[in-house]
Amino acid sequence: MICDCNLSRSVPSNLERERKMRVREMRVRSWLVELAPFAAMVAVECLDVGLTTLSKAAMSKGMSHFVFVFYSNALASVILIPAAFFFTRKKRPPITLPLLCKFFLLSIAGITLMQNCVFTGVSYSSPTLASALGNLVPAFTFVLAVIFRMEKLELTSSRSQIKILGTLVSISGALIMTLYKGSAILSPPAQPQSDPSAMLTTTNNWIIGGLFIATACLSLSTNIIGQAAILKGYPSEIVLVSFYCLFGTIQCALVALIAERNTNAWKLSPDIELVSVVYSALFGSVVTFAVLAWCIRRKGPVFVAMFKPLSIAIAAFLGFIFLGETLYVGSIVGAAIIVTGFYGVIWAQSQEEKDEVTNIHKLHSSSSKTPLLDGHLDA
């Protein structure tokens, strides 16, 4: 009898232990699923900073950025097109002519205009400025999301007012970074002294580069909104990315043929030029395009844009270490203002999401109580 009692007690305890382990595994799995988009976007920002740093080093050796953009997208298309047809060979949504036209327009904003402008801006300025001005992407994306009714905006709400104020603050910070350099805070060792004419040329290049990068940010925001709209009706990220990259390659080829008449500019040296093209194709196009499309579909356009401030510190560190760049007061002040305004927007958005979740729970609880009340009334 004693053995039977012990056995009967051990069976429920074992079942309870297994149940707790399953609950714990489910919690860990759900936590990893929630964490995956965040980790993916952090990795994309790191890869993006590495791309701008490598491309700056390649263009400093005389490589044409038009040729660079064409080669990198051509190699990415060679990888993406077969992959798209292989992974979607069993279940592929139909590809129509209107859909191809949307992909074509998407590639104009996200590849042809954005990439050519950003690499032109980097060649005039630095990867640090490109990463700092990249914080305009959340502001532009928010404005476009409101215009296309992807984001709610109530002018009487304090949180909507914080969103608007944060957007304006981010834009003002970007203008400070572009138009004001200030004195040097941190300089690489043994930097030669520049004459006044060289400093004036550098300042003018800094402003020109900033304008090109700001244009690229607006193009990227337009691309993010466009992807979000297309993925609602066509839920296949890899097909979108492959055609989007293919059309971008064709467009960039035409731009490069017009801009670069010198045949020597099309030759790739087996050094930093080749490395930067391969890196851009694999990580800047294949990985980044796929991750962005995946995160846009699951989390929305504003979520993707919110990770841009992370690239400032990474770019400043890599630029100082590998390119011997100088950190200026304008860069630090402008970046701080941009981040402040941006996270004001993100805070307001997170509070609105919490309110929506609370309202949904209230609606479910009230609907579950209604049948009981109806039953009492019928009785």
TrEMBL record:
This protein's UniProt keywords: Membrane, Transmembrane, Transmembrane helix
Topological category with respect to the lipid bilayer: Multi-pass membrane protein
Compartmental location: Membrane
Pfam families the record matches: EamA
Transmembrane segments: 31-54, 66-87, 99-122, 128-150, 162-186, 206-226, 238-259, 274-295, 302-322, 328-348
GO cellular component, one term: membrane
Keyword set includes Cell wall biogenesis/degradation: no
Domain named EamA: residues: 52-178, 208-346
Molecular-function GO terms, alphabetical: transmembrane transporter activity
Major location category of this protein: membrane
Family classification: Belongs to the drug/metabolite transporter (DMT) superfamily. Plant drug/metabolite exporter (P-DME) (TC 2.A.7.4) family.
Full protein name: WAT1-related protein
Gene source species: Herrania umbratica
Gene (name only): LOC110422532
